[in-house]
Amino acid sequence: MSTTRLAEVIAALETAYPPALAQDWDAVGLVCGDPAEPVGRVLFAVDAVAETVDEALASDVQLLVTHHPLLLRGVHGVGADTPKGALLHRLIRGGVGLFTAHTNADSADPGVSDALAGALGLTVEAPLQAAPADPLDKIVAFVPTGPSIRAVHEALSAAGAGEIGDYSHCSFATAGTGQFLPHDGAHPAIGEVGKLERVAETRLEMVLPRHRRRAVVEALRGSHPYEEPAFDVLELAELPSHRGLGRIGRLDAPEPLSAFTERVAAALPRTAWGVRAAGDPERPVQRVAVCGGAGDSALSAAVAAGVDAYVTADLRHHPAAEHLLAGSLPGRPTPALVDVAHWASEWPWCAQAAAVVDRALGGSVDTRVSRIRTDPWSIGA
Question: Tell me: domain 136-235, CATH 3.40.50.2300, correct?
């Protein structure tokens, strides 16, 4: 029996696809399953539908990981007499957990669009719509030189300050002289009431996530030897981020739109929807924007990026027609459009997510990707 627990698989997935990146309307994370239960096999799919649930049960997996949420909208019950409730009951009875990474996987670095770009042979340069980096503060504290510095440093670190990437307890310290005059009612740790005091102090600087500001300030007050510690909290400027919706990438060499469209069709699973392109077949394509899933909302970002082509799913007729019309004006080039099936554009992510679990858990669980086409369109004429 596997000694790997469901909680360990969840931790690996949530490290790669942080839940905080999900849109506020989204529903991500563990849908059913016991985090304490062992997991030996995991199946990855775009959708939790009858066919992928059948596959999970037949393959003796203990966890089904999907991109699309089964329960996206609020429900008041999951009775087995409803379509989605029936699927959940089958999973639970079969001992199979269900976990979803949706818009958090869309914006992660790497995420859904990185997998799509990789399938098309693109070298990723940047997000199409960059998400702001997590906002940071810097706390600057003035601590009397001596043992107090270590105590304050440890307290601030424990509260969340000083974390940079894979490092913790990061700080910078400089020596200086502090000055203060205690008045009546004060109880100074150093010096006397009514007497000007000059003390050798250390200026201690540490960064912190903005949402940890209150906890860090409280930790400073609780660990500092002074009755009224002197400190500054500075809001740092917003930094560029590799996270966000979509990706901009580049082919090794330009190729005509007709050939690029064939490249897209060959790289993705075949669907009844197929692959459609809008633009001059001979137009050279090298710099490309991609967006896994419905990318209609990012069309203006693709135009602003000045790419040669935009690959996404679910493009609507009128915005596409207006886009082509705008591109017909002199001096206003717009990218060619390549429209693919929603499911097909997100399917490459399944292998990426499986690799996340493989790397994090050292191959202690067997990961497999479903090849069942769950695109709702099943007939193409």
Answer: no
